[in-house]
Design brief:
The complex is a heterodimer of chains A (83) and B (423). Chain A has 83 residues and is an all-alpha fold. In chain A, 59% of the residues lie in helices and 0% in strands. Chain B is globular, with a radius of gyration of 22 Å. The chains are: A mainly alpha (83), B alpha+beta (423).
Chain lengths: 83, 423
Amino acid sequence: MVKVAPEAIEEDTALFGPDSLGLDSLDALQMVIAVEKEYKVMIGDPAAARDALQSLSVLRDYIERKMADQNSVVQHELQRSGS
Amino acid sequence: MNSNDREVDVAVIGGGPAGTAAGTQLARAGLSVLILEKEKFPRFCIGESLLPHGNDILRELGVWDQLDRAGFLRKYGAEFLTADKSRLQRFWFRHNLGPEREHTYQVERASFDKLMLDHAKTQGCEVREQTRVLGLDQPDTENMTLNCESADGSRSSVRARWIVDASGRCAFAGTRTGLRKRSTQRSRRVAIYGHFEGVFRNSGKAEGHITIVRLPECWFWFIPLAGDRTSVGLVVPSERLASGEKIGDVFAAAVEQAPEAADRMRNAVPVAPLRATGDYSWKFSSFATRRIVLAGDAAGFVDPVFSSGVLLALKSGMQAAKMIAKADAAGRPLRFFERTAYTRGVMRWMKQYVRIIRMFYDRAGFEVFMNPVACLSIPSSIGRLVGGDTQPGVADSIRMLLFRLICRLQRVTPIAPAIPSLR
């Protein structure tokens, strides 16, 4: 369990690795599950997860862009079924 | 003698960052300086991304505080992505360079160069815009004469004891004094670039990050500028253009090939037609003669992937000015050892980049770069280099050596995860 004040976590704070918040693989798994539950965004393979969970800044862009992608797919399908 | 003829201590050819850094420094040292600029500022120029290690020089020149007020976008780092969106590595200057260098700026060069030139004027430089330098008589003597032509066609001559050649890629003095030009990259590349509006922006503090998107053979830069403008460029092997293809078609095809770029460009509207620059990455064999010093791109041009252009221009311009001021005070030309020290110094800065650039273009090298081995603080050494630290300590040098070794190994046996889209 990491004991850090939430204010101390900035958007560019590294979450894993040296000079970071010091999260471990279990934390990573929990974050992946939380993101999937909250935003319906899947973080597929381990490399993608490592990249997406670098920092909150990256994670935010990752989720936003995935959601935009999914929306555009949904809209595309809606248009197709509408025409 | 023409009424426009002038005699000065130093003639600076070119009013870009190298020229204004050198001019400002020399004027402060008490020399009379005339900056000759062929264009009328503000004018378009590519190369908008600064590096935090240039901050010190901008502070020394006294323009740093003006940059924030001028409304330039703050740049807190850089990010590297693969074109298929599978990988992303976001660097933050703060992590490796400390609070003094936690950010720098993305600058539209039209405004930045104008700001620098205006500042040079306030520091005592005389500036002549729309003045083209046509020729040089009696090179390397105390009576060097530059033949100039103004926009209205009138001729004038400028006599100077010293010349700083900051003419950029025109490389005025280098080509005229017969210095040998060497290529620093094996393969030739072309850059196709332009300014757009409506390009995707990162959120939060990463809005000002430069984004580099890598494809197997080429790469894109996305440099967000103040307002809604973004500088977007594509660097491709020259062969792609050799067949007479239009630059717009090559650019569009590459965007199509790269989902990451296509997504960012989805709502993009060009502000001006695309431009192209070819055959880059070269340098002269020497950057100084007895009375002529080459600075910035006029000395050599390094591939722009790590945004080193303006930094190298500022650093070399500054260094050139200090060297000239010292020799002038002693009333002598530049000594042999000063010239070689200057050339070696600037070449060493360039070499730092050339090495890491080579690794960027190498598939295995890029795979390691995207997954820097976390031990031995290698990532922070890379972070420092990405931030523009051109004088790494011994420890950093060893780490970079190790890093290059790991890149070599990666070709044979996977150390970092492979990036399938580049294979």
